[in-house]
Amino acid sequence: MSRLGIFVDRKTLSNSEQLNALIRCRDVAETLGHTANFIFPVDIHKIKKMDAIFIRARTDPMNITYVAAQMARFHRIPVLDDPESIRCCSDKIHMYSRLIRENISLPKTVFLSRHDLNVERVTRLFDELGTPLIVKEPSTSFSLRVEKVSDIADFFKVAQRFIKLSDWIVVQQYIESKYDWRIGVLDGKLLYACKYTIPSVTFKIQASVNGHIVYCGVESVPPEKVPLHVIQLGIDAANAIGRGLYGVDIKNNNGDACVIEVNDNPSIESGEDDCYPRVFETIISHLFAE
Prior knowledge:
Layout: E1 3-7, H1 16-31, E2 35-39, E3 52-55, H2 64-74, E4 79-80, H3 83-89, H4 92-101, E5 109-113, H5 119-129, E6 133-136, E7 146-149, H6 152-162, E8 168-173, E9 179-186, E10 189-197, E11 206-209, E12 212-215, E13 217-220, H7 228-241, E14 245-253, E15 256-264, H8 279-289
Parallel strand pairs: 1-2, 1-3, 3-4
Antiparallel strand pairs: 5-8, 6-7, 6-8, 9-10, 9-14, 10-13, 11-12, 14-15
């Protein structure tokens, strides 16, 4: 009997949807004949006793999840997500550079250092990329430190705040859409697909509006109803990062699909898998097949 370690923290258990997803994962593992153990940061030493690790907490090279991934890798234990994927997806400069190198379709994207922050350079950006622009701090996640700016004054206000946190910032062409596709990919294969409907009060899938967190709507979509080029783009983008578990966000305006970003450790607790009941079975089988 193989042992699955599901690495979690208190935030993972912060709402009923996340808790229910974890319970489903555990139940599937046990149905497949494995044991499943929830491992909290205080119990990280138990990782070396597991046969596979599934990380279900926010991944970041600066927090304990990265230590967990590295520990599993050191002990030759299969782990999702792997340390390389965590490093890449947690640094948008690194991530977009990989996608550009592999000719993955993106919005027009520019990297700026603090030395590039001058009126002449920013004026050219508005001319080249259009108005508004999207400005991102490279270590952002969950749509934090992602802002839409419509003029030079707004740009400098946001950029000067972000450049205090990083040596670089990302500037992108704004692509308008009512929803994003999220293509879940595991080991180069489609795992699930869903639509994230953008709230009318924001342009992001998650935002703070008047002191309240506003979330996108989630609609699981069967594969036959997803444009084939969107699925293929999601798989190609994931493969540019690695062979792990990824959620690829794609905008598809008039058939012109482009990748907004690739997320390691994507969420699977808000209904993304409604049309894909074997998601956890596929993940667990993949882990124990390595």
